[in-house]
Amino acid sequence: MNTAAGLDHIFRPRSIAVIGATSRPGSIGRELTHNLLSYDFKGQVFPVNPHARFIHSIKCHPSILDIPDPVDMAVIIVKKELVLPVVEACGQKGVGGVVVITAGFKEVGEEGAREEEELLALVQKYGMRMIGPNCFGVINTHPDVTMNATFSRTQPLPGKIGFMSQSGALGEAILAHAHRLGLGFSMFASVGNKADISGNALLNYWKDDPNTQIILLYLESFGDPETFTGIARQITRVKPIIAVKSGKTTAGARATISHTGALAGHDIGVDALFDQCGVLRVNSMEELFDVAEAFDHQPVPRGNRVAILTNAGGPGILATDAAAGLGLDVAALDPSTVAALKAHLPTAAATGNPVDMIASATGAEYRMALRALFDDPNVDSVICLFVPPIMIDEMAVAEAIVEARAQTDKTLLACFMGSQDAAGGADRLKKAGIPVYSFPEEMAKVLERMSQHRAWLNRPVRTAPKPERGITSVRDDLARLARSGQIQILGSEALNLLERCGIPTAPLVGGSGIAELQTAAEKMGYPVVLKLDSEGLAHKTEIGAVIVDIRNADELARQHQALLSLAAKHKLTGANVVLQPMVTGGVEMALGMVRDPQFGPLVMCGVGGVLVEVVRDIAFKLPPLSLDDAREMIDQLKGRKLLAGHRGAPPVDVEALVSALVRLSLLVTDFPLISELDINPFVVCPSGSTSRAIDARIVLAPAP
Amino acid sequence: MNTAAGLDHIFRPRSIAVIGATSRPGSIGRELTHNLLSYDFKGQVFPVNPHARFIHSIKCHPSILDIPDPVDMAVIIVKKELVLPVVEACGQKGVGGVVVITAGFKEVGEEGAREEEELLALVQKYGMRMIGPNCFGVINTHPDVTMNATFSRTQPLPGKIGFMSQSGALGEAILAHAHRLGLGFSMFASVGNKADISGNALLNYWKDDPNTQIILLYLESFGDPETFTGIARQITRVKPIIAVKSGKTTAGARATISHTGALAGHDIGVDALFDQCGVLRVNSMEELFDVAEAFDHQPVPRGNRVAILTNAGGPGILATDAAAGLGLDVAALDPSTVAALKAHLPTAAATGNPVDMIASATGAEYRMALRALFDDPNVDSVICLFVPPIMIDEMAVAEAIVEARAQTDKTLLACFMGSQDAAGGADRLKKAGIPVYSFPEEMAKVLERMSQHRAWLNRPVRTAPKPERGITSVRDDLARLARSGQIQILGSEALNLLERCGIPTAPLVGGSGIAELQTAAEKMGYPVVLKLDSEGLAHKTEIGAVIVDIRNADELARQHQALLSLAAKHKLTGANVVLQPMVTGGVEMALGMVRDPQFGPLVMCGVGGVLVEVVRDIAFKLPPLSLDDAREMIDQLKGRKLLAGHRGAPPVDVEALVSALVRLSLLVTDFPLISELDINPFVVCPSGSTSRAIDARIVLAPAP
């Protein structure tokens, strides 16, 4: 369930029963009880175990029903066979929420899945909420609650991060690593099998939690992508969401017929989904923590102009390379900044960007230079590097950085390379809320992610045009074809449907013989294109069934004959030879849609020909597309240069392409019967000429 | 200087004078003397300072000339003004080598550079060798030497890594980080300004040092790329060289005229150089250490088939994603391995690859599973993940991994996630020579680099054809044109030169009028191409001066007229309209060469058109090219798919392309007067037709 109702029973309980508590060392029941007590839970803890009288000096009840006081929440650690009766007892006791640590349900197979359904039914029967089964537990560090209901060996630091992990096994690793970095949590939840409380429910809960300012997700799958988008889109305007999504290469194969389908990688849906709701996707757990550290204490930079300050040339260059390589602007410093730096630094120092103060730089020089950089209107963020030279007081440098930072609202990331002393400068910076990294290159990556978040914050809310609820005749035609068992709609039939939905197409003209075709060609004007139009022929070009640039009647007759022979050779009975005006002087694009079983329709756009086929220079988005969404897809293509007028060609009418993409988005949203769609090529012409779809294929889902 | 002669004076001295030694705390002179003594240098140390009688309880001499015993090496830490007289004294004393820590020479400007020249002259006058000036010092951990002649605060561990750093400031960071990771050095050198001893001299020295088995380089520039290639190529067959090269984005602009020149990024020479001599380039300091750890203790995997073993699903998937994403083979396990795993693991375990033993996995299960994976003939390396569950004995798992490893010669990398305890399992593994990483994704990167090294080791030695010492007439023509001040050779003139050098070209036929052209076209056969051939016209297509696919005499006459008007419009006096047969049915390639001021000629290959222009799908190599080099360049292109026969087209004659590339390589090696060259397009045809250069441009260097 997605709703956050009742989650307070789990995250803000006044009393907790630990069912399966023990004092056996090295057991989950012991660790969890111990954590609740030693983390000083602000409420009552009731160990429940028929085989013990006391646990950690607290009276132990044989059953939850024996507890005289009311119980808000129960953590269940009993063996699997006992889970159902225990939950039944919780229901009878009037418990509000249960956290089921016990494993052995859906994750082990069909029988487990059936038992999980029974478990959920029981939970719902009593109006309870449930985290798990098969999870690591939950944490709320709020001073009114201070609950560590996990069996972690690491006590969490309080802070403003909400962390949701779909892997219980990663729980310990996450808490331990966060502790090492000094990252604090508001709440933590290992959601296990998500039988009742889903990731989306947690997002809904954290959306309104004032203590949770940053949300980190470790995801292995999506339950309900559409709901996720809806919630995440609201949250990311206020709180960054940073996610690792694993399982890129293990997703099952998607059965597709279309070109678009073949081009859509299995992971493309996740990227499209995150892109649409401003979730920052990182590539590894390490990057997740790197980025979280920065968001935890530093403001999001106002722009992507970065200044690099160093006392050692090499690391400065490494940081500069990494920043430029990731598309950040290595800021052009204001002349007044350069003048200030020159006035205070030795002549051997470099006062461009990177600013290299050389090894003699003291705390005072760091303070001065940081102030100058923070005051520079051309600088949004500062990367500050320090390689401790023997004659320099490292703590004085750290103090200077802390002081300078206190006077700015710009972003500061630091790197103290090779600083051995844990109690040294790096530690001083961390305590003051300045993220410290071990290597210069990491900081550039972090800033790039922060800039991505800034771009999302700056982006106006987009509204897609409303679907037109279909043109009745198109709907009828599609339904009729699907009922008749037809899977693909090709050639003139497909173009005709697109034309009726507002996507301009180049007409296909048939004829009973060459004379008729010649007359038609004369009328549309040479050059023309001649094609075989056949139901069974999906890949025309590959057998040579498209002949372009026919310039006169004689050539037309000759090629007509050639196509008839080709049809005979390939036994294409019922194939027509059709004529199409040749659309010249434009850029050929490939547009399309494939329906992902999990994420629904994905709209594609790419520059036709080798860019799509050889280098997969394509963009995907989830419809509905706004005009700006369509423009952004086009901007993501390397091939966009061709649209702007390449090597002397005139620029083409990009807005005609935008319009076609939005129409395509409406079409596939409106007609769920269409399971895949290719428009290839769609020729985008210079303004004045009409841009048109030249060929198309529509794949139908079997009729319901 | 590149030679290693005399380097023993510096790296294996029997006695060292520290000139500028002091006992002032926090000074370089104190730290360096202290390091020599506390690291237990196996020889005599003579502090030299006119203002002290004793330093660290050792008699201090006022000048090196006062030392009664012979002195092998002197470390110089005096202020800059005293460096020359001190070096003069060293020479008189008969010192073999000096390490000049003092800075303020070439790195501070012209005057410093002059002083550096004087310093070098002095060193050479006395037949000494010199490291520096402006450096961090040198280390040799060999038990017969145990010399730490740096001012580092970290004492190096002994080991088999030779580390050369071009940045002195990074010295401390490098030593401290290596210490944290437990990486040991055979030798370390901060080479500073490299006035005498260059990086290449050190490579030559380490080539023959049996204690140095792995070489790490931090480079900011290349002194002599050709020598580097020659030495590195020999070393990498025996010892891996791993390098960080900084300064990607800061290299000065290269002035170029050609298309090839514009396409060659400033960093392309470094990649081409490393590629040619088997040096592994890594992208960051962090990766340098990650990769070094693996080479330090583990064998290079025999192939790139990796097995992943885990006790937690999530991290297993993260490792699998990363491995597959980097092009490693996620091994298909042998059925006998799967059977062995099934027999010993619980039913909930996954026995495919990744092998997920689930959280209950004990040391015994790790031992069994690792043995099974190491015995599997389909597995070259194993990534072993462990997320410590509360009920599992971490040390037992670590012991099991250590035991299993002792019985294999396959590669093993491990990740103990969230292991808090420094004295725990991770530490146990490290002590046993198993690299331990913090996150699953890092290991995939490391294995990918190791596989790259394996591929280099497996690659037969390549021999490029010998240059033909030029065709005399071509040499004469080029010299004549250069003397006349001509910069570019275009059109028919350029094609003619290529043809004479063995690269087939499509003939250009001129004519005095349309009738003559029509006769010629009839003779070569329609379709034909008509072009403007003019000295001042380098970008024909952009003004529409190339008309392709002309199919008959009438069209020819019309287009001839159009080109004459175009020539008039663009005031191209002396332009000829020329005819060329249209080469159809092939794949258009772009070939070329640009001469880099540092790396010399770089040969380029790419698929013509949008792949080169829009996505820069290009490969560069340093000539001379062997046939295999040329094939490898083609293999590196995404567009190679087009050569194999794309969408029904016949495959083309790749060997004709290989031959053209090798000819091009010979041409530019043979004629240094050619500073840039474009062949665009070079049409590669199916076997049976001749592949040909259609257009070309040669840029000449000014005549000497």
Structural write-up:
Two copies of one chain form a homodimer. Chain A is an alpha/beta fold and 704 residues long. Among the domains of chain A are: 3-153, NAD(P)-binding Rossmann-like Domain (Rossmann fold), CATH 3.40.50.720; 297-458, Rossmann fold; 507-582, Dna Ligase, domain 1. Chain A is 38% helix and 21% strand. In chain A, the strands form six sheets. In chain A, strands 9-8-11-10-12-13-14 form a seven-stranded mixed sheet, with helices on both faces. In chain A, a hairpin with a 2-residue loop joins strand 3 (54-55) and strand 4 (58-59). In chain A, helix 6 runs parallel beside helix 7, helix 12 (335-344) runs antiparallel to helix 13 and helix 19 packs across helix 20. The longest helix of chain A has 19 residues, at 440-458. Chain A starts with 6 loop residues before the first helix and ends with a strand. At the A-B interface, helix 5, helix 11, helix 16 and helix 21 of A face helix 5, helix 11, helix 16, helix 20 and helix 22 of B.
Spell out the key features of this protein.
homodimer, 704 residues, alpha/beta, Rossmann fold, Dna Ligase, domain 1, seven-stranded mixed sheet, seven-stranded antiparallel sheet, 30 strands, flat
Number of helices of chain A: 24
Which structural category fits the helices and strands of chain A? alpha/beta
CATH level-1 class of the domain at 297-458 in chain A: Alpha Beta
The CATH homologous superfamily of the domain at 297-458 in chain A: Succinyl-CoA synthetase domains
Helix content of chain A: 25-40%
User: Mean of the pLDDT scores of chain A?
Assistant: 91
Span between termini of chain A: 28 Å
What's the count of strands of chain A?
A: 30
